[in-house]
Predict the 3D structure of the following.
Amino acid sequence: MKKIIFLAILVAIIIFSWMIFVPPSEDATEKFFVIEKGEGVNEISQHLKEQNFIKNKLFFETYVWLKKMQSDFKAGEHKLRQNMRVWEIVPVLTAISETNERDIKILEGWNNTEIANYLEQEGVVSKDIFLATADNYESGIKNYEFLGDRPAGATLEGYLFPDTYRIYREFPAEFLNGEDKEIAVAKHIIKKMLDNFDKKLSADLRAEIAKQKKNIFEILTMASIIEKEARGEDMAMAADIFWRRIDEGIALQSDATVNYATGKYETQPSLDDLKINSPYNTYKYRGLPEGPIGNPGLAAIRAAIYPKANDYWYFLHTKDGQTIYSRNFEEHKANKVKYLQ
């Protein structure tokens, strides 16, 4: 029995040593390997295995655990070769390497055009290329389950999750895959945003949406309005008002949707603006508009899913940002005179 145990240990040591000290390939070409913010050892090892930098996840994770370096990995871009051994890879991944990276910050509520304008101003990608790629995401961007209920012809408006992202300053040539550089950059950024959305819209949130017999597209459409119309705790209050108005067949009368239709940024749209014949004019047409009017953050999405019950039917914002609620239209008219004139 002792001999069997000894042989088993010896075999385990040999296998472990082979996994640690023998590289998966003889390829000495330097390639970029990216660790995203928040990724742990398990995700890092999975990506290393997928890109053929290591032979086995378990042995890599065991080596990291033995070295007590689980929390030492640095987010950023690192250069690796497939002929590197595990003990050579780990020091590279635990060293800061940000020479070819920069941050971009996508604000909550920005619509796709605003994102495209920002990226063009930052010298990342042209506005037209980004919008064309977002409008035709099927061409080369992986499919996502959460896009399944999008109406035919809908863009990615609402799905480009607002956050701070790390991107390449100079896009690596090996990532182009024969594509135009700007198209490849646009796809890369859009994929980051969609991957982030996929993570942020948790299984619990998706289950609750299904439980309410709604779909993700409807929730995002409502959340995009809430993002523009309310802040903080008022988001859930506004969501309850809007959902009840839809249930009762009352127009949402959201100024934000009218601004989306006109392309303006008015605190109060003009009378002519309110008459515009657009599916986004929620003064003219009842129910939700045709689709999202921007890309909402997680707080707005949660508010749309978990509205806060209240007895109000109208609300407005004062010039100093205070939210004033009304229980009926007469009270709302009086508040308009009191706070907005």
Q: What stands out?
A: The CA atoms of residues 74 and 94 lie 5 Å apart. Residues 2-21 form the longest helix (20 residues). The mean pLDDT is 86. The first strand starts at residue 31 and ends at 35.
